[in-house]
């Protein structure tokens, strides 16, 4: 019988019912793993020979996992393809010298192919067996050579159907595999295609019967269950399981597949090579899942991911289709993204007064439900303190208070008041020609993904800005603020419900990794990270085709000029560093003009920092002026986020600017001086998002700028820069209104001429 005929409902007697992993994140605990390599993964596109580079990459990943202490097994195809290659070569070499001289060397190579194909056509059973027999030894020799590079031994096992139906053979196979695993040897398992009956001839390549490499899906599932493996990875030439045939217009990759979901899937044709198609893989996967083995079907041929697809799966990353028996209580993140998209479009279609009404309602709820919010926040603080996993600055960010909630409510009301004409505002009008008018109007960006950590107050701020700008919103908060985020999101949806747009703002509560969220380029239009510099860098690295708005670091400078006011210096420095040292707009490096060293002003600065218990790190030049200096700074590009700062000496305002450009992060930089000319020079030449004169760095904030709130501070040079409010969450579209206009009318001999006249803009609502 063919392997596809193995029954999928009868469980092997020797395998007790186990429990598969419920979530991808648990796959990292998999100890025993079977990797099934499909025909299309192992073979070249011409089905004659092996894809050596791809195979080497797979061996490297398997070796890495084996050396981590896992027990790896491989179910491989490839013997028939490798055998084809060898037999063609042998036929070529066996041509007579007379034929070679008569036909010419160039024609001789082409003669071997039809000779072999004719043999396979006439004798399909023997032909497949011959190819398999010729290819098995070479295939195994190749595996051995590759695994030897990683000091790993591999062993070949060939099986047939009878090995599973004969109890004694089955026990022998089981014992052999266990012994190999015990000795840290990787078993390489394949069907014995030299003796097993082949399937019916295929006709999947232009109607020509092709001897294809056998599919080992059911063999891999059977072995996985027999050996009580934790994970079966099935590598094919598609990304995973789609709800309709891949390549069709509406096909969507299924992230998680549950038993019983077969009715929602339309299967296409079988693989170009191999015996089975996706339907056979799903049957095998469900059978293995029933036996307690977790399964992932993924693409092993894509050049961008094949080099790490196996290790990514084991690390729990969102790759391919994961089979699970546990359905989540709520929607998947993909469904949430679609809900946010649809809800955002409905939100954008509301009248400005209706969007403002939602925000006013949310502001009221923040004060009306104050006790419930603070109680939830107290739970988060207690859990964080008990687990000891948060540093003091992060605990401060996590904490909510009555005053914080009152400030939030005030900020939200500012957003509501200023959002009346944000969406649909005409910013340019041009008369292209007679009766042909063009308008550029503001529209929402689409769906925003905002990722924030230890900042529950961020949730209502960002929600209000998304509502005001008509954007759908996905929120991913840190688990340390789970209770606070939950109630704040509930209140947000309560406010949205007054106009039936509850789904526009979604809180991601699944075990979705941030890196996986950053790959949802078809659902998300803009990612906005709010958190540590490390979080922002990780997101910028992980984002695949989605723009990221934000700043990786907040290295803010204050430069004290020779003409600085004594009264202003200590006040501005104290506020910039000590008012909230964990903020991204807090002072990190203090630049002092050389002429101020050993002056009363310098002593006052140092005394104030000591009183405020600020730890001082000396820059290289500052340290050279001192006999006994504070600890020298390890890097001038350090964001401390605490009561610490670096002091460095500069010779001029020009040198201060050069230092800022070299070591800063283009966030916020300040000059303290009474010299207006020096100040203007600093303001014009410092290339940062925010540049201030005689004002604290802490003013770099959307609320303090009068924006009501901000989704973050952007240091990028495209689109929004600095504190990002409603305007930064809008883009534009062009509206052209004509009357039977065609471009040919404007040609050299046409009847119409371009006017390109600027038209007045409609008056804005300034209430």
TrEMBL record:
Entry EC no(s): 1.2.1.41, 2.7.2.11
Any single Gene Ontology cellular-component annotation: mitochondrial matrix
Pfam families per the UniProt record, alphabetical: AA_kinase, Aldedh
Keywords noted in UniProt: Amino-acid biosynthesis, ATP-binding, Kinase, Mitochondrion, Multifunctional enzyme, NADP, Nucleotide-binding, Oxidoreductase, Proline biosynthesis, Transferase
InterPro entries for this protein: AceGlu_kinase-like_sf, Ald_DH/histidinol_DH, Ald_DH_C, Ald_DH_N, Aldehyde_DH_dom, Asp/Glu/Uridylate_kinase, G-glutamylP_reductase_CS, G5K_ProBA
Domain Aldehyde dehydrogenase: 333-597
Pathway: Amino-acid biosynthesis; L-proline biosynthesis; L-glutamate 5-semialdehyde from L-glutamate: step 2/2; Amino-acid biosynthesis; L-proline biosynthesis; L-glutamate 5-semialdehyde from L-glutamate: step 1/2
One record GO biological process: L-proline biosynthetic process
GO molecular function: ATP binding; glutamate 5-kinase activity; glutamate-5-semialdehyde dehydrogenase activity
Principal place of residence: mitochondrion
Subcellular location: Mitochondrion matrix
Catalytic reactions on record: L-glutamate + ATP = L-glutamyl 5-phosphate + ADP; L-glutamate 5-semialdehyde + phosphate + NADP(+) = L-glutamyl 5-phosphate + NADPH + H(+)
All copies of domain Aspartate/glutamate/uridylate kinase, residue ranges: 31-299
Known partners and oligomeric status: Can form homodimers/multimers.
Family per record: In the N-terminal section; belongs to the glutamate 5-kinase family. In the C-terminal section; belongs to the gamma-glutamyl phosphate reductase family.
Free-text function comment from the UniProt entry: Bifunctional enzyme that converts glutamate to glutamate 5-semialdehyde, an intermediate in the biosynthesis of proline, ornithine and arginine.
Protein name stated in the entry: Delta-1-pyrroline-5-carboxylate synthase
The species this protein was found in: Opisthocomus hoazin
């Amino acid at each position: 019988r063919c392997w596809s005929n193995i029954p999928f409902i009868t469980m092997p007697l020797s395998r007790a019912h186990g429990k598969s992993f419920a979530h991808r994140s648990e796959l990292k605990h998999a100890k025993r793993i079977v990797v099934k390599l499909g025909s299309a993964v192992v073979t070249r596109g011409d089905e004659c020979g092996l894809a050596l580079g791809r195979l080497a990459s797979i061996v490297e990943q398997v070796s890495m996992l084996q050396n981590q202490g896992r027990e790896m097994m491989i179910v491989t195809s490839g013997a028939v393809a490798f055998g084809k290659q060898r037999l063609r070569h042998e036929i070529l070499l066996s041509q007579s010298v007379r034929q070679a001289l008569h036909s010419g060397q160039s024609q001789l190579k082409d003669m071997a192919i039809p000779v072999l194909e004719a043999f396979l056509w006439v004798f399909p059973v023997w032909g497949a067996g011959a190819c398999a027999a010729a290819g098995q030894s070479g295939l195994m020799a190749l595996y051995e050579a590759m695994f030897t590079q990683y000091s790993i031994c591999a062993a070949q096992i060939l099986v047939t159907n009878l090995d599973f139906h004969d109890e004694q053979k089955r026990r022998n196979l089981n014992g052999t595999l266990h012994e190999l695993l015990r000795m840290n040897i990787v078993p390489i398992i394949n069907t014995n295609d030299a003796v097993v009956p082949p399937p019916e001839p295929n006709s999947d390549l232009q109607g020509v019967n092709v001897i294809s490499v056998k599919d080992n899906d059911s063999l891999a599932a059977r072995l996985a269950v027999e050996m009580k493996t934790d994970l079966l990875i099935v590598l094919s030439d598609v990304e995973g399981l789609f709800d309709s045939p891949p390549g069709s217009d509406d096909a969507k990759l299924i992230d998680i597949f549950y038993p019983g979901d077969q009715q929602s899937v339309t299967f296409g044709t079988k693989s170009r090579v191999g015996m089975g198609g996706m339907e056979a893989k799903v049957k095998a996967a469900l059978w293995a899942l029933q036996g307690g083995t977790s399964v992932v079907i993924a693409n092993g041929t894509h050049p961008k991911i094949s080099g790490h697809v196996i290790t990514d799966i084991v690390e729990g990353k969102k790759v391919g289709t994961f089979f699970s028996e546990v359905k989540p209580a709520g929607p998947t993140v993909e469904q949430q993204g679609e809900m946010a998209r649809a809800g955002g479009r409905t939100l954008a279609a509301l009248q400005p007064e209706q969007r403002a009404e939602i925000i006013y309602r949310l502001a009221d709820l923040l004060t009306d439900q104050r006790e419930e919010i603070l109680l939830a926040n107290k739970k988060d603080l207690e859990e964080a303190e008990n687990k000891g996993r948060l540093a003091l600055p992060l605990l401060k960010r996590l904490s909510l208070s009555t005053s914080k909630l009152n400030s939030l409510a005030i900020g939200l009301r500012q957003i509501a008041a200023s959002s009346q004409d944000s969406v649909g505002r005409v910013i340019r009008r041009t008369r292209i020609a007679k009766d042909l008018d063009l308008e550029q109007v503001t529209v929402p960006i689409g769906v925003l993904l905002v990722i924030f950590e230890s900042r529950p107050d961020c949730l209502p701020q960002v929600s209000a800005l998304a509502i005001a700008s008509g954007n759908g919103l996905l929120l991913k908060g840190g688990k340390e603020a789970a209770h606070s985020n939950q109630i704040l999101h509930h209140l947000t949806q309560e406010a949205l419900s007054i106009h039936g747009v509850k789904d526009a703002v979604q809180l991601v509560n699944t075990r979705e990794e941030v890196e996986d969220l950053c790959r949802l380029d078809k659902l998300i239009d803009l990612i906005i990270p709010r958190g540590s510099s490390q979080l922002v860098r990780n997101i910028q690295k992980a984002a695949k085709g989605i723009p990221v708005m934000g700043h990786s670091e907040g290295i803010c400078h204050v430069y004290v000029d020779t003409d600085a006011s004594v009264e202003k210096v200590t006040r501005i420095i104290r506020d910039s560093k000590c008012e909230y040292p964990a903020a991204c707009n807090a002072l990190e490096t203090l630049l002092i003009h050389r002429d101020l060293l050993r002056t009363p002003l310098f002593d006052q600065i140092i005394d104030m920092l000591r009183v405020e218990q600020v730890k001082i790190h000396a820059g290289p030049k500052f340290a050279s002026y001192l006999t006994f200096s504070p600890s020298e700074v390890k890097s001038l590009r350090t964001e401390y986020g605490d009561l610490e700062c670096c002091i460095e000496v500069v010779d001029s305002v020009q040198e201060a600017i050069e230092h800022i450009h070299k070591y800063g992060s283009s966030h916020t930089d300040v000059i303290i001086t009474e010299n207006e000319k020096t100040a203007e020079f600093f303001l014009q030449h410092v290339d940062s998002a925010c540049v201030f004169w005689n004002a604290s760095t802490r003013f770099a904030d959307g609320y303090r700028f009068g924006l009501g709130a901000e989704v973050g501070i952007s240091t990028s040079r495209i689109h929004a820069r600095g504190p990002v409010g409603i305007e930064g969450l809008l883009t534009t579209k062009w509206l052209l209104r004509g009357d039977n206009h065609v471009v040919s009318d404007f040609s050299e001999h046409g009847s119409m001429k371009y006017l390109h006249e600027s038209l007045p803009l409609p008056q804005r609502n300034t209430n």
